[in-house]
Amino acid sequence: MKYIKRDLEEKIEALSKEYACILITGPRQVGKTTMLKNLMDEEREYVTLDDLEERRLAKTEPALFMQMHKMPIFIDEVQYAPELFSYIKIEIDKGATPGSFWLTGSQAFKMMDLAQESLAGRVAVLHMPSLSQHEIYGSGSADVFSVDLESLKNRKAKGMQTDVSGMYERIWRGSMPGLVSGKYSERDIFYSSYLQTYIDRDVSELVKLTDKFQFQDFIRAAACRVGQLLNVHDIASDVGVSDDTAKRWLGVLEKSDIIFYLRPYSNNLLKRTIKTPKLYFFDTGLVAYLTKYTSPSILENGALNGAILENYTVSELLKTYQNCAKECLLWYYRDKESNEIDMVIESDGQLHPLEIKKSANPGSELIGAFEILDKGAIPRGKGAVLCMRPELSAINSENYIVPIWMI
Description:
Layout: H1 9-15, E1 21-25, H2 32-39, E2 45-48, H3 52-60, H4 62-68, E3 73-76, H5 84-93, E4 101-105, H6 108-118, E5 123-127, H7 133-137, H8 149-158, H9 164-173, H10 177-180, H11 187-206, H12 212-223, H13 232-239, H14 243-255, E6 259-264, E7 278-281, H15 284-290, H16 296-300, H17 305-322, E8 330-334, E9 340-347, E10 350-356, E11 383-387, E12 393-396, E13 399-403
Parallel strand pairs: 1-4, 1-5, 2-3, 3-4, 6-8, 10-11, 11-13
Antiparallel strand pairs: 6-7, 8-9, 9-10, 12-13
Helix pairs in contact: 3-4, 9-15, 12-13, 13-14
């Protein structure tokens, strides 16, 4: 099994020289612990609250727990003992040196709430996604995706070119470190175990499940609708639950970083826009597993091929921002006259429209809807078509053709 260098490493090392406490959140099994263990030196003590004795001590005697362990310390799965946060705050206020506390937690929604309440202004919070395309196949330092020619040229030099079949291999394979690193070879067994653990340990803490298999069917019903406008009623009907139950379950999937939404872009000058979000999964390998595509080639030619390519592209673009610890202002656009733009990035005071296509030779008709943004209050900047073309190119001076392998 090989260790895959993570793009967040440099950011963590830099922030550890400024903040006494670093909190890494993210979904289950994305490599938070592995990364920090790789970064830590022999002076730092490692404690995991998966250890039931350590967890008991941290919950019932947090002051004693802090006395038993020296700083600098790495506390893994700290969400199991929120009682520790007040004592970590005390240590920071007493003058704990930068980098004294490294914390991780799988359940980002719990961690963020607890950290903001107890450690406000004292902790640097970073979100770690599953492996990005750059981490798996690329080289060099990480950069956010930008529709800037020099930035795109630089990104091209760091990526690994592939064709359509290779791209669907990446999509089907997914981005979970356990599979990509070679630690686990049986993909179906990995995802089956991943889902079972997720439902047993994470979901069951948040909602009362009378039928765990029904919840797994619910995740599958959502996976069949990636890249589509969210229709809660349709998903609920597929598995025989109420709309209210479906909304709660979708909330669990979102908060635990299984799914995410693209919200529609709108402003006061664009009044006839659709208000419904679009649904995506963070890991396309999980989507392919749930929707029963048994090989990359079947997926490439299946009914989901366009939607899952869009899902992969949106997810990878978001990861470039998360791995640089930057906020991504990303939307989609659709109005009641059927004008549609797959993605709209707001950056440096401009809107950058992006279209996603499986084609290797996109035509100028794909950028026709970009002009609708000119009616808004924020000026339109350069746009791009993200597609299967092997090389960086352009439709015109304002709109580039960007291979998806470059993201």
